[in-house]
Amino acid sequence: MADTHDGHAESGHHGPKVQTYLVIGAALAGFTAVSFVVNYAVSHYGLSSTAGFWIILTVAVVKATLVVLYFMHLIWDWRKVLFMIIPALILGAMWWIVMTPDIVLAWDRERKADPFAAAPVESGALPPQHP
Amino acid sequence: MAHAVAEQPQAHMGLPLHNGKLAMWLFLVTEIMFFTALIGTYLLLRHSVGATPALEVKLVKGDDQKEHPAVEHPGEPGRYEPVAKEWPRPVDVHLEEWIGAGNTFVLICSSVTVVLAHWALLRRNVRQAVLFVAVTLVLGAVFLAVKAYEYNSKYQHSVLPGYVGDRLLTSDRLEGPTGQQYKDRVRQQMLDALQPVRAELAAEGKTDPTVDDLVHRAEEKYGSETTLHRIAAVLGRMDEKTEGGYRPALSPAEVGAEVMHILHEAEEAREAPPRLSPYIPYGNMWASCYFIMTGFHAFHVLGGLVVFAGILVFAARGRLTPQHDWLLENTGLYWHFVDIVWIFLFPLLYLV
User: Fold this and answer.
1) Chain A nearest C-alpha distance from B12 (Å)
2) What is the pLDDT of residues A23-76, one digit of tens each?
3) Gyration radius (Cα) of chain B, Å
4) pTM for this model (two decimals)
5) CB distance A71–B36 less than 8 Å?
6) Which of A114, B129, B200, B327 has CB 3.0 to 4.6 Å from B120, enough for a Cys bridge?
7) Where on the phi/psi map is residue B205: left (φ > 0), alpha (ψ -120 to 50), or beta?
8) Inter-chain touch A123–B29, beta carbons under 8 Å
9) How far is Cα B301 from Cα B145, in angstroms, rounded to an integer?
10) Least Cα separation, residue B159 to chain A (angstroms)
């Protein structure tokens, strides 16, 4: 094998200090607590569920980014691996986009064909009674 | 290979990173696509809810019984009102957010320890690296243990794919096949739950008790505010009664509402839940998504733990050296990816 391992020399750095890792770890734990508290606020303190959703999702993305950049060393290795990761992300997004028209049209077809689907009911009205 | 002259950077063929790291990133890229497919499907399914308005019933306690004497409830006034079906909330499926948050914290700590293991090995401290790997292994095992506890809770509450009643309708005229299957399943579950009563009646010689026998015996023996009596009472009303005056059968949705009432009362009384299929709109879809995503994730965690155990065995034989930092780095990459997947799964399943 032509490839020889010489530790971290190829990446051109000696790795971050341990404090960096610990700070990032503490930040991740803190963000987890934030999302838990926001969820609690949505259910008990009347924070709107849309705001809650966006905050929690943003927090999740921030946490994942921190893990990817620092724990997975991408902040130093990005240029070496982006050729693999970018296409995967594009393909992942494309899969969703490409599937959506088929799925939505199938739902629509199902809804029209469903003999058991009922008209929307105003609250307080009774369901159909036994004959 | 010339060592005597100053080293010129050689023209390298291929990529500027180790084979192992390249391979691991390539593998992670395929895993990204794998989990994107699962999570994407879950999001699409979840947001499709509400596209089909449908009638379901929910038992509400109240004293409008006079106005809407739709259905009699044994001993308790109440009526059934239609509700729009919604995706189950965590409380509906016995999912506790704080357990998920705790698990997230455990996995984050294990990510920190695995990166510290790599850092320690870079500083040629093999002992410390092995210690950190051992801690990571333990934390990963704790994660799986908590997951097993959660799965057991789902099993106890019968929230399993295919075992939840969800497409139930309100009128016998509109009854679909799934509703009838649900009634049949619940009927059998109720008969099984009433086994002690049946055994008692069988001991007295009544080997083929009617439902009324079961109801009366359950009430005598267990009192009228107990789970078994409630089960027997619903069983008694589940089918059409023609003797002594016609009484129509409960519709599947009404059976579902009654079952949820029984389960709720049992939970209030802090009893073990009776084995009855709950009625949770979209519950089967929720359970399928939940088990597939967390199951595959747990499987990946297990794979990581196997590798960590292998590293510990390797180290126990004295063969782990500072030259093996690539091993810890690549294993760490995999473990961080597993952590990232959980970072997304936790809010999507437990929170929003």
Assistant:
1) 10
2) 999 999 999 999 999 988 888 888 888 888 899 999 999 999 999 999 988 888
3) 29
4) 0.80
5) no
6) B129
7) left
8) no
9) 11
10) 23
